[in-house]
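Consider the tokenized backbone below.
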């Protein structure tokens, strides 16, 4: 990938690497897609995670045997933004989600906002990683 994320293909490729690595639990590859100062927002649970280290811990510690499949990616290279629709499977339960990504000048993911189908209370055990708002 080039030093700047200036094409739709670059943005799409980064997001595809991000989701593939998450699905396979390849955390080094996953981490390489992220800016050090990444900001992660979950509006339904009113949680925010600041920084790559905390966000990586959040993902490594996330419970369950979930899987994720990308269904659609829409990229705006001018705004360095990507919208993604995914299908998550955890046991027999399926959920669609929509995710918005923003990129820094080096083509790394600097902001992520996840929208799930319904508001929910966050599971216990991640209080050490998140801020509530």
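A designed sequence for it:
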């Amino acid at each position: 990938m080039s030093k700047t994320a200036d094409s739709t293909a670059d943005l799409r490729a980064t997001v595809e690497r991000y989701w593939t690595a998450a699905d396979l639990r390849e955390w080094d590859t996953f981490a390489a897609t992220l800016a050090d100062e990444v900001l992660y927002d979950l509006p339904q649970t009113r949680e925010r995670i600041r920084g790559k280290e905390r966000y990586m811990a959040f993902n490594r510690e996330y419970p369950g045997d979930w899987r994720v499949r990308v269904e659609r990616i829409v990229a705006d290279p001018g705004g360095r933004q990507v919208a993604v629709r995914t299908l998550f499977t955890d046991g027999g339960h399926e959920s669609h989600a929509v995710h918005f990504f923003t990129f820094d000048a080096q083509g790394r993911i600097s902001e992520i906002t996840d929208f799930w189908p319904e508001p929910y209370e966050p599971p216990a055990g991640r209080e050490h990683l998140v801020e509530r708002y």
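Confidence is low (pLDDT under 50) at residues 1-5.
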